[in-house]
Amino acid sequence: MPDFIILKKKISQFNKTISISGDKSISIRWVLFASLGSGISTSKNLLMSEDVFAAINAVKKLGIKVKLNKNECKIYGRGIDGYTYKQNLSIDCKNSGTLGRLILGLLINSPNLIKLVGDKSLSKRDFKRISDPLSRFGAKFKLNKFKNLPLSMIGAKKLKSIRYKENKGSAQCKSAVIFAGMRTNGTTIIKAKKSRNHTELLCKHLNLPIVIKNKKNYDEIKVNKVKKIQALNYNIPSDISSGAFFIALTVLTDNSILIIKNVNINSSRTGIITILKRMGVKIYYKNKKVYKGEKVADIKIVSPKSIKPINCPSKINSKAIDEFLVIFLIAAKAKGISFFKNLAELNHKESPRLDWGNKILNLMGVKTIKTKDSIKIYGNPNLNINKKIEIKNYLKDHRVFMTSVIAASTFGGKWKIFDKDSIKSSFPNFLKILNEIKKQ
Ligand code: S3P
User: Fold this and answer.
1) pLDDT of 2 higher than 80
2) Which of 233, 264, 281 is the last residue of a domain?
3) Would the CA dihedral through 212, 213, 215, 218 be positive or negative?
4) Which of 28, 196, 345 has most ligand 1 atoms within 8 Å of CB, for mutation?
5) Rounded to two decimals, what is the model's pTM?
6) From the CA of 172, how far away is ligand 1's center (Å)?
7) Among the atoms of ligand 1, which is closest to the Cα of residue 102?
8) What span, in angstroms and rounded, lies between the C-alpha atoms of 132 and 130?
9) Active centre residues (catalytic)
10) Given the CA of residue 173, which atom of ligand 1 is nearest to it?
């Protein structure tokens, strides 16, 4: 079966309520924390995607029993030192940067050599950003081309706590160091540029010895040795990064309204809402609540009469890091020129996303000026595509696929978009939900 879809019709106006799948960052973290818990942890609404299955398979290989069915997942933790595995164990992280980076922190005290492999996309990504700080704890690494997967790591018995400055705004780097810090006798001190804080919130909820001071531009995190992690039952809220595609669909479709139920609106994740509100979009939260430290709400989006351009402040970047591809699409329909800067991190994702965002816009006939870390987008409120567009060879980046589908459904043209299977890594139900919205 050819792995592409053809789209040649714009969506008509809609007024719908949808539910989407569980948050990917929280799902993977739940699997990892539960695998070290003392006793049985149960989750509901765990994201059933390949990235999360890779995390489940990883902890199974480390000797942890997991039972997964349609409605819930049970992990039978054997305590903080409960992993059992042989020398030269190979863990396949598939497409998941979060799994690949976080698990290295968890395994910092591994007495056995562990090999980490991933798919073509993950094997191109930077793991030196993780091996550098983790080496300072005492672990030893060997990386392909000094920075990539496959890599091998052997932990140390005697670990040193470290002081670490995280200056990329990477939650994966920060989290890997938090996990490693939990294994040492001293205090690990992290000064981290702001980024998503699900790991810290879970540590707090579990009463682990972590102290966080939120400063204006960074967070200071102090971690001490963890002796025990309790089992963790968790009802995972929906993923705003998946919701973002349907938020964009609504913004780009005249006279439409969408409600997305029970979404995680942690302020370290809602950059897209801040940006779109500044661009004149009406977005409301309903049924707000706090669940285990995470804010959750239903999100209501009303398509705007016109879209304002934005000069996007860089301090929002890490809060919207996975949403820029769709934000660029919205800027393409704004009345004026939008500017996004200090976005070098975007080219470190599943594909070089700043380059791909730019390429998709250019194929759509949108004028842009791109540098190595910024993009200027010349918006056109009347943009309407009449030509053929093909999207392929983008390292099967799930978000490039879904962004292209949203563009095809809202701007017109005849699109052939390859690698449909890429959605399995983060949002397997994406096309099904889109078709439900299309149905009148
Ligand atoms: C994630 C952190 C972000 C994000 C990724 C998920 C996480 O990556 O892009 O999709 O779950 O910690 P970085 O930490 O590399 O910015």
Assistant:
1) no
2) 233
3) negative
4) 196
5) 0.98
6) 6
7) 12
8) 5
9) 322
10) 14
